């Protein structure tokens, strides 16, 4: 039984896609349903999302934002108002045409994102500079009619938060856009132990209707990139279309400057693909639903279960700890705890009790550590911190190893084949070159990084004068 | 300006419906949108929901339940499976017929409730008695195509939690059904200060597809009842239809026993209509986003703002406290704080500072209390508890005053006209009588209460032998 559990996972370097599917199902993060492209987020998966959400929600509130809730359905005419926006989203929205038996006079789409609803509301409630800034956020579900789907990474419906803000000045909106990108980067790096590259999207890759889009990009185990959060500066585009105007300090009417920013359940997919291994999930302690799993050894022997429960009880107030006192074999319990990515396994058996100690086993390295009874709590707390930073360091090293420089297309293609990962290469700024690179290599421009030095003077594709350094990669 | 704010609210005894609409908009709980029957829940309204949700989520978890997330969309064929269920919900679901430009092969409805999705999932994951019980809960949005809508009380879309559980035995399922009804009653009474009557719904009023439905019913200021939470025992009905079977302890296949239970944003409407008054909202301290509003008096005078901020700072760690240091007049600030139902207003001016004290003003009674500086925190904590229980007591007294007994239809109609509220009257159990009572009086059977003595031997409508005591009322 114990063996069987592990054998069910495909080796990650053999077939990464299958490994991923195995992990999300065997670790009981998700289940499929009869709704094409939608997933059921099971208790273990949802608990991870709740922990991510709690951290992010706190940062969103600490930066002065307020949560609101907008309608799920958007009238077609409202969605149509902003032309670039509708062009970007029309092909992928679900349309409601009937309410009960009645055909609707106007179709409603299920929100793919809520810019137009916020715009309409902001027009109602913003009149003067005294009403600004408006810093709103919403936690919700959205639907995008994707053709091919994969759990967490691309699903018809997903959960996210979407922030929407209004400001007096261009400068303030730009600061907000970058501030929230920093919040996302902090959640990724500090909480999820995922190192990210911050930067700006090219015109081609920016959000429909935005003036500029900023992104954090992370690198998966298989060398593919994943966009992990985006923040958009809308300028006054939506405000002009929707008439969101305010009397400024000089008594003149002017449109507000807007931003929006989003972070989704997709990040769970990233976390799996950054930290996971051939035994299954590896969870960062900061968001692990269970941080310590206690496994009694020879639990039928006198005193073992009592000792295990005593430790469970003493750790419960400060840690997320659980105990597996079922009648399954220890080997089976070890495997299950590994599959679920629980950061620390605590083993306690008759010999440990005799010696006044327990054994801590790190999920990430497999290292076993003997700890005296009176030191258990501090040892665990230290170890959890160590695991958290160690996961980050390992992921960062992996990314750096898989980041290369290319100054011409031969190098570009060669690197992509040999190294994979991110390729840093110069770009002239012409979308034609960006298109060609994608066509020839399947790599897309991920971002124009902040504050990085150029690697040559000429565009990697056309050889003309370079304008920007770009991170390129194949991406999820 | 200050006067204007108050004058905008309609007197509640003059036009209760208009008073309600005034309060939800002027206290900035909601805004309307261009989506018919949907509402925007504004920051103040959403903060109330977040507080209610946090309390209820904790109780749901403490009773051993796990949160999950199911798809928003349900294929028509899946919804059709349970005949009573679809009959109940078909007239009020929204249908998605197109994804992008493509017509779907099968229509999908937006979940009006998720029984069928849980049933399908449970069939996949339950195989043995060892897999039971399954105690799942979901926080989500649902859509029901209502013809007439009112903010919080009846909207096309609303937010809720829906619990769905599976059990080995009939007895266990029944205990779960009643346990969760108790949880709802506790949230209403302890957290929202709304007294409730617990009982069972009649066959006519029970949930589509349920074996029995239990309810908590509360009474609004205007004498109308509001169903405040329901818990359903499904027996093995869904399990048989969907094939959710398990190997029991005797090694035989048998269907599981199921329950479901739900609690919605509707309760915010109840809270408004139970506690509110002619000055606006009155919020129970347990869920008030701001429990104490500090209003500096003559704040331009030296030392006033400093003293106010110092108090703000010292209370911040243990209480939800805010300060209005804007340049609006104190009278305006008082009115706004009252409109928003903030439980305690703390006034501090030059004279108070001189005397080493502040003034606390209760929102519910208007009472003013001088408190010495060193006693502020304990005085506020005591006062918040007092307000919380006083709101409950007042609401209970109102309900008792508006509860009467009727032994025949003359009394019934007379009481309804003179007293309003709940009428306790006996019923023979025949749906024809229930239908007639509704037709003649617009009062519906609210519940068959637990453990209450009968008030006569014969049915209030037909005079035949009585089977049950029923609470009747006009209801939202
Ligand atoms: Zn070029
Ligand atoms: Zn009768």
Automatic annotation (TrEMBL), chains A, B:
Domain of life: Bacteria
Aminoacyl-transfer RNA synthetases class-II family profile domain residues: 36-284
A molecular function (GO) term: proline-tRNA ligase activity
Listed EC numbers: 6.1.1.15
Main localization (coarse): cytoplasm
InterPro entries: aa-tRNA-synt_IIb, aa-tRNA-synth_II, aa-tRNA-synth_II/BPL/LPL, Anticodon-bd, Anticodon-bd_dom_sf, Pro-tRNA-ligase_IIa, Pro-tRNA-ligase_IIa_arc-type, Pro-tRNA_ligase_II_C
Function according to Swiss-Prot or TrEMBL: Catalyzes the attachment of proline to tRNA(Pro) in a two-step reaction: proline is first activated by ATP to form Pro-AMP and then transferred to the acceptor end of tRNA(Pro).
Recorded family membership: Belongs to the class-II aminoacyl-tRNA synthetase family. ProS type 3 subfamily.
Protein's name according to its UniProt entry: Proline--tRNA ligase
Source organism per UniProt: Planomicrobium stackebrandtii
Gene: proS
